Amino acid sequence: MPDYHALSVDDVQQNLGTGRSGLSTAEAEERLRRYGKNILREEARETRLQVFLRQFKSILIIILIVAAAVSFAVDEPLDAAAILIIVFLNAILGFTQEWQAGEAIAALKKLLVQRAVVIRDGERREIDAPGIVPGDLAVVEMGERVPADIYLIEATSLQVDEAPLTGESAPVDKAPGSLPPETPLAERSNMIFAGTTVVNGHGRGYVVATGMQTEFGLIAGLSQQVEDETTPLARQMDRLGRDLGLIALGIAAIAVVIGLLQQRELLEMFLVGVSLAVAVIPEGLPAVVTLTLALGVKNMMQRNCLIRHLPASETLGAVSVICTDKTGTLTRNEMTVVRVWTPEAEVEVTGAGYIPEGEFILDGAPIDPLADPGLRRFLQTVLICNHASLGHGEEGWRIFGTPTEGALVVAAAKAGLSREDLPEPVKEFSFNSTRKRMTVICPGREGGGYIACVKGAPEVLLERSTLMLRDGSAVPLTDDLRREVLLAIEGYASQGLRVLGAACRPLSTAADWTPEAVEDDLVFLGFAGIVDPPRPEAAEAISLCRSAGIDVIMITGDNPLTASAIASVLGLSSEGALTGADIESLSDDELAERLRTTNVLSRVTAEHKLRVVDLLSRDRKVIAMTGDGVNDAPALKKASIGIAMGIKGTDAARESSDMVLVDDNFASIVAGVEEGRREYDNIARFTRYLLSSNVGEIVAIVGGLLLGLPLILIPVQILWINLVTDGFTALALGLEPAERDVMQRRPRDPEEPILNRNAYLVILLLGAWLGLLTLHAFLGVYEVDLDRARTMAFTGLVIFEVYNVLNFRSFRFPLYRIGFFSNPALILAILGTLALQAVVVYVPPMQIFLGTAPLTLADWGLLAILGLPVLIGGEVYKVIRLRAGRASRAAG
Ligand code: ATP
């Protein structure tokens, strides 16, 4: 590959076989076949074999393999084989669940592809970045990630963060012009590189390398790091597993000692020890948790919440404050200029959406806006100082760029103005939320010199203006005039209109312009009132947040009055609203106090956002914060869940976020919270369910031991229950629909463990009950036939668990309230479990492996009746508790 940075534009074009109107679609397709996709080498995903082998890496499996070996050594080959088969089955089960979870996440990653703008067939197109080929003419804007290595042919105030490539943390200036061949990578200012981010300005240029051929691809390895993240819940589960492992060893050791004191045989005691170890550990739990989380991520995607980091899906359910942008999240971000104020006139603008058809109405009659010098100047200024453009595609008129700027382009187009009629800018000072303004400088029309065109928040411009254009000439802005203009601005804002002002300043000669020098002494031209209707579903979502104990804080860069007007339409109180200036003047403690009660923050910059998250998190809140700009990245990182906008978000924001809001819609965040809560509830449910089953097994085995009985359940039977039958029902419990009042409860305390004291009590009580029942089932027949007695205990436990799983469908509501059939997966799992048990009891090869003997119909009937009180007890308890709760609420 030639040293592109040393070539002239013509040479680059020739080398790459491209030109000013980009490649043709056909050529691009051909090149895509030739050069391959613009992607870095796929992250090496674990192979199926690796995932499968990993299933054997657990203490339990090792215990079992030893048990199998001992059984084999003492001439019990069938036992040994049975244990090994179960171990294998466990591995297959774990493997399938983990693989499926991996697939679900891989599918989501595919949805996260970067988009990029290129010129093809002479037209601007937005395509998936992997489709970019060498020779493409690419366009980059502030906030975007550079999609490939690009030789610049145009750049306006372009600055790039090259830290991922060179380690340089300060933004680097970029501009076209060839450089000496020996220029090192970090100084190639005429090139921008894949993997870096545009932090200022915009530019365009020819793609010289894609995929692994880019500088970023060449330092391979960088991109291959897969972050292996565990969620807090997964960590809790790991800890639980470890604790249970230790408990298992303890209980097994005690049991063996008791047995030996009872002078039982060593071999028998060995089996008892293994049975107990197997009984204590909920073998199926890790796989069920993994799969439930993965399915949850998929469900969240359906609700337009794309989870980038797995822990976010869990944290989302615990959110206690949502700090949300206004524009696009609470409002539709479909902007239309409806009014323009200039010092001489105030006109209404008709028309809808982005269709460039409409009239300018003055005092009830249409006028020619270009015949009015003040209006013409205003429209020209906002059009020059603008990155958006208007296009007509198959789906009608659309804009490229931000809706605020798009609305201004449309208004100018309604007046018959188009960009081509205006001079080309030579310099730009970009917009950001701190400056709240942007400026472009272009050659003046008349009499040479230059003119700075400024647009931004009108009160910011007014402060920097000393003159105002009236009757064709600039008049001084007296205090009275300023007050008049401010009143007019407030009048617009208090109607919920977004207000954008314009100003200009003639500059005599070219100089080394700086924003401070240029954006001062301005001539104020006027402002436009833009409607951005609130999203209809946002009001409902906000009221849902209120009932769910979640505070909503609107954080916007917009005018305080506009913000309050929109807030009131959405049902958010603007009492105690704060502005950026307030935030700056308050101390940390004062601000923290005010944040407890406020719902609206306006004229806020990215730095303020960071301070707000910081203070909120001191209150132990779980904060979800939305953001879209480059500057929002630190606040997004700091929040418990950083949420980037899928549509209007920059790549920079997206990369710092935990979650991408696909449709930018506030209501989707709330839907995600609901899904998160459901998921967490279900994990709590099946964890308790599985553990109560383990307690049941232990009570039965230890009870039998104390009564001097033979081993009640052999290891394979316990494994079968823990892995197969309980596994199915637990998984189905994970699919339980959300409780009806899931959004009427306060958020859970993120510090509270998934198993609190109450949970342990329930697990122990229900477990003990199940264990005693199992013991009872065994006691009835063991003197006649040991195998049948074990089969009774084994089948009994499976049946009791079926009753028990119904208990765990809800901690509070009895079955008649949640509906017996409302979780069809569970019904299927129960039927499947019972059918499997029948197979195990009656099919001869299974009888050999699991040591079972056939049962009579009466046996089944007896077990069914024996277990019924488990369910009835649970139901009666819930009804009493609900009544008591209602009575105490009525009394209170
Ligand atoms: P939100 O923070 O809710 O998304 P916002 O878009 O108003 O709202 P910012 O993007 O921080 O927030 O913009 C702050 C202010 O800067 C706006 O209210 C507007 O007056 C001005 N502004 C916004 N976009 C531009 C632009 N492209 N050029 C000049 N000024 C702008």
From TrEMBL:
Primary localization: membrane
Membrane topology: Multi-pass membrane protein
EC class: translocase
Entry GO terms, CC: plasma membrane
PROSITE patterns referenced in this protein's UniProt entry, alphabetically: ATPASE_E1_E2 (PS00154)
Gene Ontology process terms (BP): proton transmembrane transport
Cell compartment(s), UniProt: Cell membrane
Domain Cation-transporting P-type ATPase N-terminal, first and last residues per copy: 3-76
Keyword check for Amino-acid biosynthesis: no
Keywords assigned by UniProt, alphabetized: ATP-binding, Cell membrane, Copper, Copper transport, Ion transport, Magnesium, Membrane, Metal-binding, Nucleotide-binding, Translocase, Transmembrane, Transmembrane helix, Transport
EC code: 7.2.2.8
GO MF annotation terms: ATP binding; ATP hydrolysis activity; metal ion binding; P-type monovalent copper transporter activity
ATP-binding in keyword set: yes
Transmembrane segments: 56-74, 80-96, 244-263, 269-297, 695-713, 719-738, 759-782, 788-806, 818-840, 860-880
NCBIfam families: ATPase_P-type (TIGR01494)
Name under which the protein is recorded: P-type Cu(+) transporter
Organism name: Methanoculleus receptaculi
Phylogenetic placement of the source organism: Archaea, Methanobacteriati, Methanobacteriota, Stenosarchaea group, Methanomicrobia
